[in-house]
Design goal:
Layout lengths: L5 H6 L1 E3 L35 H26 L1 E3 L2 E9 L1 E7 L20 H12 L7 E7 L3 E8 L2 H10 L10 H9 L11 E7 L7 H14 L2 E7 L21 H10 L5 E6 L2 H14 L2 E9 L2 E2 L1 H22 L23
Parallel strand pairs: 4-5, 4-7, 7-8, 8-9
Antiparallel strand pairs: 1-2, 2-11, 3-10, 5-6
Helix pairs in contact: 2-9, 3-4, 3-8, 5-6
């Protein structure tokens, strides 16, 4: 944000009770009338020129002006309006798409969690919660999907709300994985900023489903328009095929959905990386890599609250009053103590002899 012009800076000032400002002309009264003690002099020419006294007189008038003007402005309630300031930090817009299919409720070993074991969903929530808020200016959106997508929280820089939203994704998911609808909703969360903002789409999933060829065209168009950096955090169950493994039989999307989803992502023409994780430690390492890759400038806004300025006006009034009080004290002879009033002498009484 550039420097504001004087007119813009002046426009940010306002008062609560502007009607009180009609009393401001009263502040000119000290220049018309004086409260100083008047000493009659036969002729001004009889006294020598006294520039010091003249300067003190004008200083006292000005002090009276400050006292009255400060009181009027203070009572009017001046303040500086709040404003929104745009700054630039380091971060990214990250849209997180979390798989909530039934298999996410299992551990990385492919069984129901017991004891201290974590399910893939629980490990993802914990590590994503640590990821959110690691940088002050990142913005996040969270979408969950299984049979149908669900927007958990839209794009925001309120990191505590995002962490709460991630913690809230703790209900058992369904068996079906409709990743296409989840991708469409997750892409819709990006704002309208220009290409200077780094955008990242992070998919956290342990599997994939077949994307209908008719939907693929729509998704390609959306990816071409937004061009986010695409990351797939593939939570691989131990012993299951890798996304790079070709099936022994027919190489079709039905036979190897993860492999063909990976091929679809590679064909989008957008920056793409896949991370295969077989445990919480691998998930944490992948998230650290993603965080290191997304380090571009991002604009963010700061809300500056309204600032009360009454104390400034009352402080000016107090300064003027102190000068006036000092002037009055200078007129008094404080060194002379209180003297008793002499009683009238009584006339001597005349005694008459009997």
């Amino acid at each position: 944000m550039g420097g504001a012009t004087p007119m813009e800076a002046l426009s940010r000032f306002a008062v609560d009770t502007p009607q009180v400002l009609w009393l401001l002309p009263l502040a000119l009264l000290p220049f018309r009338a004086s409260a100083q003690r008047v000493v009659p002099v036969a002729a001004l020419d009889a006294g020598p020129a006294d520039p010091l006294s003249r300067a003190i007189g004008w200083a006292l008038r000005f002090a009276g002006f400050l006292a009255l003007a400060g009181l009027v402005v203070g009572i009017a309630g001046p303040y500086h309006r709040g404003e929104t300031v745009t700054r630039t930090g380091i971060g990214a817009q990250v849209s997180i798409l979390v798989d909530r299919s039934g298999s996410m409720n299992e551990t990385f070993a492919g069984r129901q969690p017991s004891g201290a074991e974590e399910s893939k969903a629980a490990a993802s929530r914990r590590l994503l919660g640590d990821f959110v808020g690691s940088r002050a200016h990142d913005q996040f959106a969270v979408t969950a999907f299984s049979t149908a997508p669900m927007l958990v929280v839209p794009m925001t820089d309120r990191h505590e709300a995002v962490r709460a939203a991630i913690r809230a994704i703790d209900r058992p998911g369904l068996d079906y994985t409709n990743v296409a609808r989840g991708l469409a909703m997750s892409l819709s969360q990006f704002g309208a900023q220009g290409g200077t903002v780094s955008r990242a789409l992070l998919i956290v999933s342990d599997g994939a489903a077949v994307i209908d060829p008719r939907v693929q065209g729509t998704l390609r168009a959306e990816f071409a328009k937004i061009r986010p950096n695409l990351y797939w955090l593939f939570l691989r169950t131990k012993g299951s095929p890798s996304i790079a493994d070709k099936p022994a039989g027919e190489d079709t999307p039905q036979a190897a959905p993860e492999r063909h989803l990976d091929l679809f992502f590679k064909s989008l023409g957008t920056p793409y990386r896949a991370f295969e994780a077989e445990g919480p430690e691998a998930v944490a390492a992948a998230i650290r890599q993603i965080e290191a890759l997304e380090r571009d400038p991002i604009p963010y806004t700061e809300q500056r609250p309204r600032r009360d300025l009454s104390w400034v006006a009352f402080g000016v009034a107090l300064l003027g009053l102190l000068v006036l009080v000092a002037g009055k004290l200078a007129e008094a002879d404080v060194r002379r103590g209180r003297r008793g009033i002499p009683q009238a002498a009584e006339a001597p009484s005349e005694r008459i002899a009997a």
